Amino acid sequence: MLRLSCGYTSIAKIRNDNVIYVDKTSYVSTLAKNRARPVFLSRPRRFGKSLLVSVFASLFSHGLRDFAGLAIAEDDYWKDEKTYRVVHLDFSSYALKDLRDWEHELTLDLQCALLGKKRRELTDAEKSLSPYSALMDYASDADTGSLVLLIDEYDAPITHSLDDPGKTKQVVDFISSFFATIKSCERIFRFVFITGITRLAHVSLFSMFNNLLDISVDDDYATLLGITEEELHGYFDPYVRNAAAVLDMGKEDLYARLKATYNGFQFAVNARETVYNPWSLLSFLAEPGKGLANYWYSTSGGTPALLVHYLKNADELELFNILRYRASSGKNTDLLIDSDSLLAKSEPDQIPMEMLLLQTGYFTLKSVNEDLARLVIPNDEIAESLIRLSLDIHNLGPTIETRSRIADLASMLDHGDVESVFRLFNTLLCECVSANSKAFGDENTIRDIIYSQIPRRRVFKAREVVNSQGMSDLELMTGNTRLVVEFKRIMEPGGEEAAIRQAFEQMKSRHYGETTEKVKLIRVAMIICTVKRSLTAYRVI
């Protein structure tokens, strides 16, 4: 059986029978040619920023040693024959530390990298310096352009301190002072590369470095991280073929489902193509038997400290839910931003909600014109994650008993047990909608709440499935059965029959669920009652 490493990087093609990587070294080479001009890249969590930093560390430490057979080595992209001392700092490792402990840890990491020593080899005098003094001392004797500095997740300590405004200011001041020291020593740097999720004001990274190259929304680097459609087909086709066999489905059908579930991210207004989330895509291909699961949210990709902090505020949470509703209901005309704002700096606790959702990966860009960009939900995994995040913030969700019933959903579908499906949906709504929620005023929200709680392991699910006649609300599929659900909302009890007739006519006239596949088709109308705050009726065609 084919196996795939989930360790996505930017540097290698195929190393052995079990591991496959994506070659993006032409991008790496172009960026690495910047001499002493700091480069900044922001991306959401789980998009490979840290592994890209490791690629630069390898390139500058060992030259082309690890790049045999790749574009950077074969196509004469790289002509720098020197190697450099590399300082690689992961600021996320300091995020939960007290500021004094962080300063000490940073000094140790700096000194080990600068002096080429292990921690146990450092003298007490070397350990006692401040990070600023350690860097300044080294710079006093260092050759021009002899050092490479790589800082990953620069903003992690700030976003993890937002619950304590006093500490936030201390952390911002500390980082700013450190960047100011880097600026004062700029002659010694051959290359500086910094990553993060957002652009924060009062951090001297964005003011002190007047020659900073920010490639976060640069068209030329829109696909630097992530996997394009061409790369998926070119590098991973054997693994997709294997996954299709495991799931007993056609390869092209699986490609379509992968695209709907994990693709759609666009990191520049005029980007020529979108990309897949590499973590989710490779996690699926490594273990396809688990189905097209929500790997991004379940591994904390969708719960960055910055966003969670904002959603503790009732007003911000309400705005989050409004934006989620607008985006998921297709009202994208309300989600337009000035293109210039994409590179704007914000106070850590005053980031506009639209920008915050963009920076953390819940929204992505779509071009409108040179001045405006549209924000949309990139794919099915993110649409589901928006609902799950909202439920988690409210401490809502199905009980263990209900989760066990959800696990039987495939069996309910194959046995045509619509009554059990109806009762399960109502139970989910009872457990996932708060008493003061306005969810029952909108059928799409009710549909999305149900949808978010259905795992993809044995059931393929889809919302708003389009055919030439229209768009069905919800479809659930096993290898043997396709269930099509059309939701209709009524204000008060008594209107169920008319709503059911309307749903029947819609499903029949628009041929919902009708395909050439040899599966059992079940079409059902389900009625949402706003006053009763539940599903009050269902009927099978």
Describe this protein with a few key phrases.
41% helix; 541 residues; 5-stranded mixed sheet; 5-stranded parallel sheet; 4 domains; 21 helices; disordered N terminus; single chain; alpha/beta
Overall description:
This protein has 541 residues and is an alpha/beta fold. It folds into four domains: 192 residues, Rossmann fold (3-Layer(aba) Sandwich); 65 residues, no CATH class; 76 residues, no CATH class; 145 residues, tt1808, chain A (Alpha-Beta Complex). It is 41% helix and 15% strand. The strands form three sheets. The chain has a five-stranded parallel beta sheet with strand order 2-3-4-1-5. A hairpin with a 3-residue loop joins strand 10 and strand 11. It is elongated. 42% of the residues are buried. The N terminus is likely disordered.
What is the third-level CATH name, the topology of the largest domain? Rossmann fold
Shape category: elongated
Euclidean distance between termini CA atoms: 42 Å
- Identify low-pLDDT runs: 1-17
Largest sheet features: 5 strands, parallel
Amount of beta strand:
5-15%
Which class of the largest domain in CATH terms?
Alpha Beta
Total beta strands: 13
Q: Calculate the mean pLDDT score and round it.
A: 89
Helix content: 40-55%
* Radius of gyration from the alpha-carbon trace, in angstroms: 26 Å
Number of domains: 4
Number of helices: 21
Given helix and strand content, the structural type is alpha/beta
Query: Which strand order spans the largest sheet, edge to edge or round the barrel?
Result: 2-3-4-1-5
What is the CATH architecture descriptor of the largest domain?
A: 3-Layer(aba) Sandwich
